[in-house]
From TrEMBL, chain A:
Location relative to the cell: Cytoplasm, Cytosol; Preautophagosomal structure
Homology family: Belongs to the ATG13 family. Metazoan subfamily.
Domain Autophagy-related protein 13 N-terminal intervals: 90-195
Residue ranges, compositional bias (Low complexity): 307-325, 394-406
GO cellular component, one term: cytosol
Organism: Sphenodon punctatus (Tuatara)
Protein name: Autophagy-related protein 13
Gene: ATG13
Listed GO biological process terms: mitophagy; piecemeal microautophagy of the nucleus; protein localization to phagophore assembly site; regulation of autophagy; regulation of cell population proliferation
From TrEMBL, chain B:
Annotated InterPro entries: ATG101
Residues of the signal peptide: none
Compartment list: Preautophagosomal structure
Annotated PANTHER family: AUTOPHAGY-RELATED PROTEIN 101 (PTHR13292:SF0)
One GO CC term on file: Atg1/ULK1 kinase complex
Alphabetical UniProt keywords: Autophagy
Gene Ontology MF terms: protein kinase binding
Pfam families, A to Z: ATG101
Lineage, opening ranks: Eukaryota, Metazoa, Chordata, Craniata, Vertebrata
Keyword Nucleotide-binding appears in the UniProt entry: no
Keyword Cytoplasm (UniProt): no
Source taxon at top rank: Eukaryota
Record's protein name: Autophagy-related protein 101
Similarity comment text for this entry: Belongs to the ATG101 family.
Length: 486, 217
């Protein structure tokens, strides 16, 4: 109860604070729409521009702000907060900023309401316009697209900063003293943009982001700041663009380097519409497995099995691999390349190809969708091949036996049907088809056969101590060489 | 009254000079501009509306807000352009400073009006030269972050609510505000700059010394 303030001033002050709160929300939300804002100056006063600033009123935002305020005004212990959060297309969300309009008890009784307070509130709004472009969430919001959207939520009451993660930073926009208290406008923003998807990780991530129930609660009261054209696309299920890039994207939006300092928040960009995909870090095996399950449905393979594959064989598969994303030795690459080797060129399987091609994923040809068909085709699977779990071993065995059984295999084919392109049967005795069939299954390279491989492994291990001794002797030379490189 | 002085410093690459300086100056002028005054009878006045627009920088990862006024933008760009040319011509790496001074005019008839500054913002610009594209990319981001800090500094000073000239009567308005623009009304301001040559001494002081020495003979 303030007896020094006359009723007109009190009414004016309440009105100023109310409209200031509404304009504050408009400025913040419009700054996170992802578009550049431009309003015109007008030399003649229109009478409807509060604080002499041209700030448009988005009706939906005003409606939500009024709903949150519910006829009250920011007062001591009752702050108006605008929460800005990010939500990925997979449903993961993260709070980015909390903007707080607070009132404290420090009163300035001398100040003139209709003049000084009004002008200072106008100045504070200009500061807010400047500061909203300066926090990290601004650049994120400018790049929002179908992969993530920026949402806002308005609430009234106590400020909740726990969702911002550890080490969040605060920037004060400004303060205005009034006879009823001092209005303070500030922003607390997250710097640690690390959070993991619920799909791939377990309980250690519970602290990093709100539980599923919480985020759902946020979502129901949240409103996207995306322009309508982007809104609809953001609700579609994620469409992988290409095999290599797509799987990188699937992993990336939810994996950020944790604990980065405020100096580089901008670098933690989700791959958006601008800029390329940042370099993909080495994905953990289970992460890649999850990606793989999404991209290509097939019998799940135990990633750990491939760690037993000998180094030489994994190198070979990498060179044959079609996806050159540098994920060497990952189960995904290995699986893909196995099928490259199995499905040879010129294999006459039109039906299979048609069904594969109709799928909307690249390299669908090599997807093991119709394993039954491939299993029945002796051109692909030599007889007696073991089951899929160790396809590398299987192919080794089949290569080994192909020399002796090749005649039998080939006799199952009717030559007339097999007509490779550009070949003529009658002119040249050795035509393309015959040539191809003869040399289709060449004997396996001796260095790749497991027996010999095992032997050489043993020899390698034995020679290791000698090699180490030699290297130790030459340590100085190596060091000098390294120096020249730096 | 004492003139308030604020100094900011940035290190930029040559092609970033203009955008960095414009970003800071426009942010200051955003806070130091009002709508056009329309005086009515009995000494009251109404104020026009100030529009704002976002400007993306081309050579810096940064966006700033400026007042929507082509005339004001043109005036600033002209001054900043001259500063940039002077800075670039002083060598590939250089140091210069550009000052934005807000002043009031005091008429001392029959003498000329006296200009009394009440706030001076000085932006020291250090020009660096970079070797390759990778360094330039890092510079884009780093300068963007630095400018964010500068904007926060500017806003912090603005919200201290320290001395501002009193709102003038109609006859005095030209002593406080720049009334020549069509759509907005900033406080009276002037922009000046100084280039420091590689020897560390400013060009103006060198010239002054030369003239003094000549006159002393």
């Amino acid at each position: 109860m303030d007896t020094d303030l006359n009723s007109q001033d009190r009414k004016d002050l309440d009105k100023f604070i109310k409209f200031f709160a509404l304009k504050t929300v408009q400025v913040i939300v419009q700054a996170r729409l992802g578009e550049k804002i431009c309003t015109r100056s007008s030399s003649s006063p229109t009478g409807s521009d509060w604080f002499n600033l041209a700030i448009k009123d988005i009706p939906e935002v005003t409606h939500e702000a009024k709903k949150a305020l519910a006829g009250q005004l920011p007062a001591v212990g009752r702050s108006m907060c605008v929460e800005i959060s990010l939500k990925t297309s997979e449903g993961d969300s993260m709070e980015l900023e909390i903007w707080c309009l607070e009132m404290n008890e420090k009163c300035d009784k001398e100040i003139k309401v209709s003049y000084t307070v009004y002008n200072r509130l106008s100045l504070l709004l200009k500061s807010l316009l400047a500061i909203t472009r300066v926090t990290p969430a601004y650049r994120l919001s400018r790049k929002q697209c179908h992969e993530y959207v920026i949402l806002y939520r308005i609430y009234f009451g106590e400020v909740q900063l726990s969702g911002l993660g550890e080490g969040f930073q605060t920037v004060r926009v400004g303060t205005v003293g009034t006879p009823l208290g001092t209005i303070t406008l500030s922003c607390a923003y997250r710097i640690n943009l690390a959070f993991m998807s619920t799909r791939t990780s377990g309980e250690d991530n519970a602290a990093a982001y709100p539980s599923v129930e919480d985020s759902q609660e946020v979502c129901t009261t949240s409103f996207s700041t995306s322009p309508p054209s982007q809104l609809s696309s953001s609700r579609l299920s994620y469409q992988p663009a290409a095999l290599g890039v797509g799987s990188a994207d699937l992993g990336y939006p939810v994996v950020f380097a944790g604990g980065l300092n405020a100096a580089h928040p901008h670098q933690l960009m989700v791959p958006g519409k601008e800029g390329g995909v940042p370099p993909v870090p080495n994905q953990p095996a289970h992460g890649t497995q999850a990606d793989h399950d999404r991209m290509v449905t097939c019998t799940p393979l135990d990633g750990s099995h491939y760690s037993a594959v000998t180094p030489s064989s994994s190198e070979e598969t990498e060179t044959v691999s079609n996806s050159s994303e540098g994920k060497s030795g990952s189960p995904h690459d290995l699986l893909e390349t196995i099928f490259v080797r199995k499905v040879g060129a010129f294999v006459n399987k039109p039906i299979n190809q048609v069904t594969m091609a109709s799928l909307d994923i690249p390299f669908a040809m090599f997807a093991p969708k119709n394993i039954a068909l491939e299993d029945n085709d002796p051109m692909v699977n030599a007889p007696d091949s073991p089951d899929i779990e160790s396809p590398l071993q299987g192919s080794l065995h089949s290569e080994g036996s192909s020399g002796s059984s090749s005649a039998n295999v080939h006799d199952d084919f009717v030559m007339v049907d097999f007509k490779p392109a550009f070949s003529k049967d009658d002119i040249i005795p050795m035509d393309l088809g015959t040539f191809y069939r003869e040399f289709q299954n060449p004997p396996q390279l001796s260095s790749l056969s497991i027996d010999i491989g095992a032997q050489s492994m043993a020899e390698d291990l034995d020679s290791l101590p000698e090699k180490l001794a030699v290297h130790e002797k030459n340590v100085k030379e190596f060091d000098a060489f390294v120096e020249t490189l730096q | 009254m004492n003139c308030r002085s604020e100094v900011l410093e940035v290190s930029v690459e040559g092609r970033q000079i203009e955008e960095a300086v414009l970003a800071v100056l426009h942010t200051i002028l955003l806070h130091r501009s009002t709508g056009k005054f329309h005086y009515k009878k009995e000494g009251t006045y109404s104020i026009g509306t100030v529009g704002t627009q976002d400007i993306d920088c081309d050579f810096i990862d940064f966006t700033y807000v400026r007042v929507t006024s082509e005339e004001l933008d043109r005036a600033l760009r002209k001054a900043v352009g001259e500063f940039k040319d002077a800075l670039r011509s002083s060598g590939s790496e250089g140091l210069g400073q550009i000052s934005l001074e807000f002043y009031q005019k005091k008429s001392r008839w029959p003498f000329s009006d006296e200009c009394i500054p009440w706030e001076v913002w000085t932006l020291k610009v250090n020009v660096v030269s970079l070797a390759n594209e990778q360094e330039r990319q890092i510079c884009r981001e780093k300068v963007g972050e630095k400018l964010c800090e500068k904007i926060i500094n500017v806003v912090e000073v603005m919200n201290r609510h320290e001395y501002l000239p009193k709102m003038p009567t109609q006859s005095e308005v030209d002593n406080v505000f720049e009334t020549g623009l069509r759509d907005v009304q900033p406080y009276l301001y002037k922009i000046s700059y100084q280039i420091t040559d590689s020897l560390g001494s400013s060009v103006t002081t060198t010239m002054r010394r030369l003239i003094k020495d000549t006159l002393a003979l």
